[in-house]
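[recover] target loaded
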């Protein structure tokens, strides 16, 4: 076995933690995420294969806790003539069912600030342009799926323009009458949740709130890494997400609020009247407050 006791250390290899201000600078907009967030108005909407009946629509109201922790020094990606200094935030989250108290979902991963690119030669003062996509999110979940989504962020003032989304499956032009009745029945069962347009539920949460600064993250990918069982039965192949970190005043109280919407596209069962598989939107939304 090689003896490493007399091997000299690599020069400039030590990474020292910066001050809080330096860490926030490396994280850029991701610093808005730091801390612990909790919200009990989350909603999960997902259709899953269900034997002879074809599919089963599941809708669950949930409570979620998300913890975001900064990595205390930037991580260098060296490219020879330039390097990327990546600011990173580690996160973990737990989702529990409001009805049963059981755990519905756990997840961990990282958010990355990709905007800092500079010449690798220390003496050079040139400023290099950031990449086209400056934010990344890496996520791993115990269904056997891992995702890397890329996107960007921006800052605005006032109530954010939360877009519509549609939970209706793309089932083809000749869909049988009554095939999607489960979606209509669910709206009656869950009157506090807009089943057809889940993002409308997020907008409703902003009623009677004064919104100041908002940091928005928009990310997507058409590539998800799945275990064979998941690919065989539902084939998730697209993921999009938007996060809003909002400065809020309501009832003479100021606080920080985090809202998000995300959609994973499932694909199973043949379409009606055209080739391919039905695309079933799996949608999650929630509104959380910083603790």
């Amino acid at each position: 076995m090689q003896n490493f006791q007399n091997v000299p250390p690599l020069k400039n290899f030590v990474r020292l933690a910066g001050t809080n201000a330096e860490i926030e600078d490396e994280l850029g907009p991701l610093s808005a995420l730091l801390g612990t967030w909790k919200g009990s108005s989350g909603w999960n909407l997902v259709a899953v294969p269900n034997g002879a009946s074809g599919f089963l629509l599941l809708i669950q109201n949930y409570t979620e806790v998300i913890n975001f922790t900064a990595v205390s020094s930037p991580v260098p990606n060296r490219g020879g003539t330039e390097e990327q200094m990546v600011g990173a935030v580690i996160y973990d989250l737990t989702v529990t069912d409001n009805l049963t108290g059981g755990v519905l979902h756990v997840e961990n991963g990282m958010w990355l600030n990709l905007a800092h690119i500079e010449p690798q030669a220390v003496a050079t003062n040139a400023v290099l342009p950031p990449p086209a996509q400056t934010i990344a999110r890496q996520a791993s979940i115990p269904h056997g799926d891992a995702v890397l989504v890329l996107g960007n962020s921006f800052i605005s003032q006032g109530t954010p323009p939360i877009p519509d989304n549609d939970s209706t499956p793309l089932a083809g032009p000749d869909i049988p009458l009554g095939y999607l009745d489960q979606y209509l029945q669910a709206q009656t069962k869950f009157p506090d949740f807009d089943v057809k347009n889940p993002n409308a539920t997020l907008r409703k949460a902003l009623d009677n709130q004064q919104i100041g600064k908002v940091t928005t993250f928009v990310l997507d990918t058409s590539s998800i890494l799945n275990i064979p069982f998941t690919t065989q039965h539902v084939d998730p192949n697209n993921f999009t997400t938007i996060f809003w970190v909002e400065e809020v005043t309501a009832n003479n109280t100021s606080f920080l609020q985090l809202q998000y919407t995300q959609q994973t596209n499932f694909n199973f069962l043949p379409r009606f009247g055209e080739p391919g598989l039905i695309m079933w939107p799996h949608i999650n939304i929630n509104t959380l407050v910083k603790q």
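[recover] notes: The helical segments are 20-27, 181-189, 199-205, 228-233.
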